[in-house]
Amino acid sequence: xxxxxxxxxxxxxxxxxxxxxxxxxxxxxxxxxxxxxxxxxxxxxxxxxxxxxxxxxxxxxxxxxxxxxxxxxxxxxxxxxxxxxxxxxxxxxxxxxxxxxxxxxxxxxxxxxxxxxxxxxxxxxxxxxxxxxxxxxxxxxxxxxxxxxxxxxxxxxxxxxxxxxxxxxxxxxxxxxxxxxxxxxxxxxxxxxxxxxxxxxxxxxxxxxxxxxxxxxxxxxxxxxxxxxxxxxxxxxxxxxxxxxxxxxxxxxxxxxxxxxxxxxxxxxxxxxxxxxxxxxxxxxxxxxxxxxxxxxxxxxxxxxxxxxxxxxxxxxxxxxxxxxxxxxxxxxxxxxxxxxxxxxxxxxxxxxxxxxxxxxxxxxxxxxxxxxxxxxxxxxxxxxxxxxxxxxxx
Length: 395
Ligand SMILES: [Zn+2]
What we know:
This protein has helices at residues 42-51, 58-85, 112-139, 147-167, 175-187, 192-213, 217-255, 259-272, 276-287, 290-302, 306-320, 323-335, 339-351, 357-362, 373-383, and strands at residues 29-33, 36-40, 91-95, 98-102. A 4-stranded mixed beta sheet has the order 1-2-3-4. It has a domain at 34-168. The protein has 15 helices and 4 strands. A hairpin with a 2-residue loop joins strand 3 (91-95) and strand 4 (98-102). It binds zinc ion (ZN). Zinc ion (ZN) binds at residues 75, 79, 122, 167, 175.
């Protein structure tokens, strides 16, 4: 048997597929308000400018951008302040989707009434601010300060009241959606997420229908944009249920020593996970049980499902940096006749520390690669005395 049995899973590198992609840091402003770190991305201002693009007066546009910036920041600081009062460590980001306050490390423990209080703190901070501004205008008419001052007051009132109300809609991930999910979790913990998604989609659909009825096409599009994350969450939950069922059958088959049956269960799921998101769902689920994942990579290989085996070993390699996993990807691609990719993966195995030249040369899986120049170079490198072990002073 030439396919390598990988035994040890080395912990280490994070999974590239599931790790969140870092957004570019060009123009990123980082500051601290109170003790809360605040990251401001330039995309926030681009979207704010687009929303105010109906204003031809540049001064009025600047007033609008300033008002939306201050309002969103105040809203997020509301979440952050109440979260901090409960002992959590908030961090705020303003980006193209508006603002988001996260509580790194504490998100899972933020449950029940506290979670609801933190969610409501954003919109209600805005309502309080709007109330204070309104009282101030009763005492002093902003029109006396000119056009831009009164526009600023109007924009502040609109942002803090209007967006606060929109944010209270029961649509995940808006604040109202988070409140709805928290309430549902208190009643039906197991199905709360699904029910919150259904509620989100229904609310957004009702809003979209209402907008269309009013002839407000842009509003209908906006409703669809609101519904999209929940539609995706529902679809993902469905994929996960199907994948979990197939993987449970594969695990049972492995436990009974029937690797062939296990490979067929896994292959059936791979065949259904064609799209990249479905593929990610499946691989993430596999990654939750690295022992089964490793066994399935081998079982799939021996069953002739080389593409599935390559995908599984590649996903393992991304997390473990184990050179044997990269070697196994090379074997699978070689069996598929994809010589260039196979040689590239052998290079990755070498970089990760693969050294077993005898195994490599005897491996019949790699027969299709032997005529490739890259393969010959690799063999020469592995056969040569390793740099550092026989260091001679340069001539
Ligand atoms: Zn909020």
